[in-house]
Amino acid sequence: MRLRNVRGSKELLDASEYVLKNPAQFKGKWTEVFENKHPLFIEIGMGKGKFITTLAKQNTEINYLGIEKFSSVLVRGLEKQKELALSNLFFLREDAEYLPNFFEKGEVKRIYLNFSDPWPKDRHAKRRLTSKEYFARYDQVLDADGAVEFKTDNQSLFEFSLEEAELAGWKVIEKTLDLHHSELASKNVMTEYEEKFSLKGNPIFKMIVKRDGKIFG
Ligand code: SAM
């Protein structure tokens, strides 16, 4: 993704109470951060935050954490949250590579991945958020019945993701090759990228995977 450097974004994030610093300190203690025991849903690569802020507004009984590694996009999500002031939404400016440092096993109930970067070169496959290496990280933080939900308009990334999930021992519980015309459409919340690509006429692919109980017990 092409990134425009937004001047002052790092400083704005540093100063914000909605952007939690040093998240390893909250590992195993997220209920204290949110001051309740509601389930924790996270979005990795939240970009400008339309998806997660909409969900947090709709579902006040769920705690949301948006994770984004670049200040210049996260700052747009922060602008939305400053207006909404939702008590069930915080952000981390972090690389998801370190996810297991931030959460205890079972602490996360759902992981959303939306229009993740494709990293088209084979040698970069490990960086894709739906690679088996990332599924191993998700395994370390997700609740036993937890799910990963992924959507994209990139067919080869989608096919790769299905294969990697299965290789890593996850099972596909929902799959559609045309989300906007499927039975999942009514509950769908659009992301910034999704709006852009569906306007061009691209079909949106979606999968929901859970761990196969036989392997992970
Ligand atoms: N999810 C948004 C959407 O659908 O509009 C943004 C999609 S954009 C293509 C992918 C985002 O994921 C970028 O903002 C990028 O910085 C972020 N990202 C990629 N790898 C990441 C990682 N390892 N940890 C955190 N964020 C990541």
Topology:
Elements: H1 9-15, H2 30-34, E1 40-44, H3 50-58, E2 63-67, H4 71-84, E3 89-92, H5 99-102, E4 108-114, H6 132-141, E5 142-152, H7 155-167, E6 170-176, H8 192-199, E7 205-211, H9 213-216
Parallel strand pairs: 1-2, 1-4, 2-3, 4-5
Antiparallel strand pairs: 5-7, 6-7
Bound molecules: S-adenosylmethionine (SAM).
S-adenosylmethionine is lined by residues 1, 44-47, 67-70, 73, 95-97, 114-117, 129, 191-194.
Structure overview:
With 217 residues, this protein is α/β, with parallel strands linked by helices. 34% of the residues lie in helices and 21% in strands. It contains nine helices and seven strands. It has helices spanning 9-15, 30-34, 50-58, 71-84, 99-102, 132-141, 155-167, 192-199, 213-216; strands at residues 40-44, 63-67, 89-92, 108-114, 142-152, 170-176, 205-211. A seven-stranded mixed β-sheet has the order 3-2-1-4-5-7-6, with helices on both faces. Helix 1 (9-15) packs across helix 4. The model has no long low-confidence stretch (mean pLDDT 95). S-adenosylmethionine binds next to helix 8. The site of S-adenosylmethionine (SAM) has 22 residues, from helix 8.
